[in-house]
Amino acid sequence: MPYLARILLYPIKSLDGIEVENARVLASGSLQHDREFAIFDKDQKLLNGKRNAKIHLLRASYASPGSSQFTPLNRTISLQFPGSDSQKFHLDEQRQALEASLSDFFGFAVTLAQNSVMGFPDDTDSPGPTVISTATLAEVASWFPGLSVDEMRRRIRANIEIDGVPPFWEDRLFSEQGDVVSFRVGDVCFYGINPCQRCVVPTRDSYLGEAYPNFQKIFVKQRQATLPKWVASSRFNHFFRLSVNTRLPASEAGKILQIGSEVA
């Protein structure tokens, strides 16, 4: 029986995520606190792993002692820069100090922007949680000697992970162009839209930013070879795609995704 095994939120886009037991759906269809903040340069261009591999060197954590959740009452980040001790910042009260430390690290001025309505998703047309299965992560990790399942999870950065299913089960959650696939996680209704187009980030070590040799070439070859026969192949103009983009109808606003919920 498919069930929700993991929920991962990324409070600051492109930095480390946090695993939580539940997450609230916003009116936009995004998950509350996911990609709520993002780093921008002086030209208001998003600073992420696609544009600057140095961002991989930052380590971020969000849970305070005795808490496993990032909440409005606990809006702090512990940030560790290479070769230094961890520094703690309150995301509202100490934002200027955080921006100054980030600017020093990158070597140019940056600011931290906030969007509590939708966050900063890559796909603003389909801002719902990205979906993948645990078995898919294990299968894809097996294509690359030396890469663990957890490292592949950190590279793919999906929001919700489904277990109790075979590899690439989530490819059932999209259909031909223009169609959507309805599914439920607990009592939350989703529309599956399309397989997510990957960028350069999965090709790099999530801690060091170093590229894995021929990652994209290996991935594309294996993804094509293992693509299930029942998949809507018209959605693959190329095979550097993994996980599923979603939308959530407005009726789902305020509902809670909960670990262990059945997927139907």
User: Strand percentage, roughly?
Assistant: 25-35%
Uncertain stretches of 5 or more adjacent residues: none
- The averaged pLDDT comes out at 94
Q: Summarize the biggest pleated sheet.
A: 4 strands, mixed
Strand order of the largest sheet: 2-1-10-9
Radius of gyration, in angstroms, nearest whole number: 18 Å
Distance, first to last CA: 9 Å
Outline type:
globular
Structural class: alpha+beta
Total discrete domains: 2
- The portion of residues assigned to helices is 10-25%
Elements, N to C (H/E): EEEEEEEHEEHHEEEHEE
Count, helices? 4
Descriptive account of the structure:
This protein is α+β, with helices and mostly antiparallel strands and 264 residues long. It has two domains: 3-8 and 122-258, no CATH class; 18-114, no CATH class. A hairpin with a 5-residue loop joins strand 6 and strand 7. Helix 2 crosses helix 3 (149-156). The longest helix is centred in the middle third of the chain and has 12 residues, at 95-106. The protein is built from four helices and 14 strands. The protein has helices at residues 95-106, 134-142, 149-156, 215-226; strands at residues 3-9, 18-20, 22-24, 37-41, 59-61, 76-80, 86-90, 110-114, 131-133, 160-163, 181-185, 188-197, 241-247, 256-258.
